[in-house]
Amino acid sequence: MAPEPPLLTMSGITKSFPGVRALDGVDLEVLAGEVHCLLGQNGAGKSTLIKVLAGAHQPDGGAITWCGEPVQLSSPITAMRLGIATIYQELDLVEGLSVAENVFLGHEPTSAGFVVRTREARTGAAALLGRLGHPEIDPARLVGDLSAAHQQIVSMARALSHDVRLIVMDEPSAALDPDEVDNLFRIVDGLTAEGVAVVYISHRLEEIRRIGDRVTVLKDGRAVSVGLPAKSTPTRDIVAMMTGRNVEYVFPERPGPGVRATAHPVLKVEGLARKGEFEPVDLELRPGEIVGLAGLVGSGRSEILETVYGARRPTAGRVLVDGKPLRAGSVRAAVAAGIGLAPEERKAQALLLTESVTRNVSVSSLSRFARAGWLDRGTEREAARAATRELSLRPDNPEAAVRTLSGGNQQKAVLARWLLRGCRVLLLDEPTRGVDVGARAELYAVIRRLADEGLAVLLVSSEVPEVLGLADRVLVLREGRVVHTADARELDEHRVLDLVMEGSPTS
Amino acid sequence: MTQPAPSAQHHGPEKGTVTGPAAAPPSKPGGGMRALGLRVDVRNLSLLGVLAVLIAVGGFTEPDAFLDTGNLQLILTQSSVIGVVTVGVTFVIISGGIDLSVGAMVALASVWATTLATQDFGFAGILFTAVIVGLAAGLVNGVLIAYGRMVPFIATLAMLASARGLALQITDGKTQIVTVQSVLDLGLPDSYVLGIPPLVLVFAAVTVAGWLILNRTTFGRRTVAVGGNAEAARLAGIDVRRQRLYLYLLSGLCCGIAAFMLVILSGSGQNTNGNLYELDAIAAAIIGGTLLSGGRGTIVGSVLGVLVFTTITNIFALNNLQSDVQQIAKGAIIVAAVLVQRRTLRGSET
């Protein structure tokens, strides 16, 4: 490479959030005109890093230089003025404004400082859209009326409306069809030919091979490799770097297959599908069995759980408990049949944060403690307490507000809710998200014990070792399709990651 | 109840204000919990403090007129109609909703209950009609919101407009005088049931019932759950829509009862009845500590809020201050109360 300094150098970037060290000394170096790929598992720190780069988060430590000069990205505006634009995964467009208005939002061409020169904005937007290969998008249309792919183009046009020298794209291909991806790559090529640098985040290795120049791999908040050649580094090495683990989790012993193999399945899923989210899935769950769904964000794993639970209405297929089909799309039918869900977003979807532990645990079983609507609060409290004690929830105080508990204990409160309800099928979506490492082993033991006591557990996790360590059987998902089913003991992390990223085993 | 149970923490303010520190959780409460209990106490204590100050002001400026038993009785009586409405509205707000139509529902129920045709059926006819009309209007609100997925603000705003219109149509703008003697008797200043003015008795009964429903029944628990986190409530297997329907029905029922009380009080039915009750009821609930975003609120707080407003009106009237000054004072109290609550709330959060 030429002796001119890299466009961007980040060194030793650290960033902590309460309870989490999201970035633990990350280095990144981006050259002008290159496509630099950022890889890492969920939670490796990619999002935090690009937010630091966009000026949205302030790092706790480390240095950033831009064109050889030390800089501080103290706000998104500062980053934008330097020429750093970020296209987030969640598009940040205003649906009620036109394409042109979105493109120039915040820096509209004006007369006398406040009258927007609409025509100028439209011509400008049209020029940018043309440059992006989409002259057919009308700058006067409302963004809300556009397809997801076109919205992404608008988002990119907005980035280019600034004098941009570095564009960060966070999983830009996730919402796109294959030919739209081809167009995206043409755009990226065009940009780099003009000397613009692109930081490209994707889970799809084949894309990185196609357009990437260099790769930086993040893991547990650190860069484990900086600037590897994107085209020639073997997949196996990349996967190894993504998975190489510092923390060994302790997983509980699996019991022998004895009882499980012979028992009748309590839950049966037949051809369950939701258009656009996941293709028909079949699975059976026996009492005492833990089945894991492994896959990346967007692979449809959470959607499958929520559809089984009735929180989403399937477009095909059905769910049976004890051979009896459940009413489709009804949470109440699922709960009545003995299914419980510990959802992915514990705080938003499961907990009443300001309420006490007791009230959170009893909320699904209220009628059990009531006669004609009147609650017997003594019985309620005792029953809830028995459930939380069985899971060793700390503190052992039924009046404590759930908000004050640790992540692990909040999760136990959710599990206690279903234990109290006497549920027979437990759906766990990312059960250890937000749970610190020390508390995980305990949670794993709890889940296994519940299974040993006869519960059937369906587990979703983006942490492959968690699925492999805890589950008896694993279904591997990729982009809404089950690509592999196997006994957990026959799989290892590399193989699962290969399947998850490329759809077929490599090596 | 030998022990203050779960509700002592969140809905304990009622207890706290009645029994004082005894309502504190029994066994080794955690730090956050103590702060929470404290905040809840402070909130209602501050409202009690405001009430005490008002009584002092009233007693000081107009000692004879204000502290007269008859006047205190008047304050309670004047509080009773809006108080019953406020109890219903408090439930709706705790569930994360809003009911802007309460004043209009009171008007509609009161005029429907006082048409000549209804009065033919006497006392029972008037009472029955008022309650049924309130329930029916609440049912429409509830169905639109719960099953028609309308935003509560919009649905009840529409009800506000149409119920007022219907009330005007029924009365043709005329005051409908009540001729049923048994109804009129209850409104006489010297009428007492069990030694208490009948309207105050109804108010007390509705307050106690509201407190019990909120704190001691599955209905109350589900109301708080829906308001605190509707998605979590749904995923926990609660029928959120049906709960919402019931809540607007409850608000309608309270309006029906309030309409009957208003008929007793005024001896007539008018389409202008219950004017701006929606604002008074919501304001009382808010200064009583109910979160407009839902999930938290108390019946005692709301009732205290009503008493504060009525007492101000009373004192101002005794001191010959006009209603413009009253309105300004009301606004100032709402702002002050919310600011104080925000501070105590923030203080308790980590």
UniProtKB/TrEMBL annotation, chain A:
Gene3D superfamilies: P-loop containing nucleotide triphosphate hydrolases (3.40.50.300)
Keyword DNA repair carried by entry: no
Matches recorded under InterPro entries: AAA+_ATPase, ABC_carbohydrate_import_ATPase, ABC_transporter-like_ATP-bd, ABC_transporter-like_CS, P-loop_NTPase
Key words, A-Z: ATP-binding, Nucleotide-binding, Repeat, Transport
Residue span, ABC transporter domain: 8-245, 261-504
A Pfam family matched in the record: ABC_tran
GO MF assignments: ATP binding
Annotated protein name in UniProt: Sugar ABC transporter ATP-binding protein
Organism for this UniProt entry: Streptomyces mutomycini
Taxonomic lineage of the native organism: Bacteria, Bacillati, Actinomycetota, Actinomycetes, Kitasatosporales
From TrEMBL, chain B:
Topology term for the membrane: Multi-pass membrane protein
InterPro entries in UniProt: ABC_transp_permease
CDD domains, per database record: TM_PBP1_transp_AraH_like (cd06579)
Subcellular location field: Cell membrane
A Pfam family of this chain: BPD_transp_2
Record's keyword terms, sorted: Cell membrane, Membrane, Transmembrane, Transmembrane helix
Region (Disordered): 1-30
Parts of the chain that traverse the membrane: 42-60, 72-93, 123-144, 191-214, 245-265, 299-318
Record protein name field: ABC transporter permease
Record organism: Streptomyces mutomycini
